[in-house]
Amino acid sequence: MNVLAHALLAGNDTALRLGGAMGDFVHGTPDASLPRRVRDGIYLHRAIDTFTDSHPEVREARERMVAPFRRYAGILLDVWFDHLLARDFAAWSETPLQAFSTGLRAELHAADAILPDGLRRFLAYMDRHDLPAGYARIERVSGAFAGLSQRLSRANPVADGVPVLQAQAASLERTFAAFFPDLRAYAKEWIARHP
Fold this sequence. Notes:
By secondary structure, this protein is an all-alpha fold. Helix content is 68%, strand content 0%. The chain is built from 10 helices and no strands. It has helices at residues 3-9, 14-22, 36-54, 56-64, 73-87, 97-110, 117-129, 138-151, 161-167, 169-193. Helix 4 packs antiparallel against helix 10.
């Protein structure tokens, strides 16, 4: 769950951030009863995911993953990129990481009435583990992978992802440094086209 990236890329729009957080929990057409800007945030989340998956740097990073981890590279890279973003958050935001993280959770709690059940459960997990700020710590990344591994429907190596990613740390940092500015520019353009 790369909730930190989605929240940051939504800019200063609370409704877009809320929709961005909902994006992994809403499938198909968003409920028409949701505020329009929240629905826009869900669509922004999907656009960010599509851009990320098609970016040449990210495609190359997925290809560098060894079997059996390559099959789960999207999940592993999403969380790892949130780790890199959290670790170096001051380079990407004027708001300190802890304040940003606490503020995001407060916004989600304030919107409880419209949160999907899955996001409510994830918000409780976020509260317990100080996410997304907690992603700055490698042990929280490891815990996230363990939880994701349990939720996947079949046996998988996701829980053992941290050593694989650490072995590629330098190349993944270069990937992130090359890719994230492009993603940020894309998100800003998307928002400008969807006022």
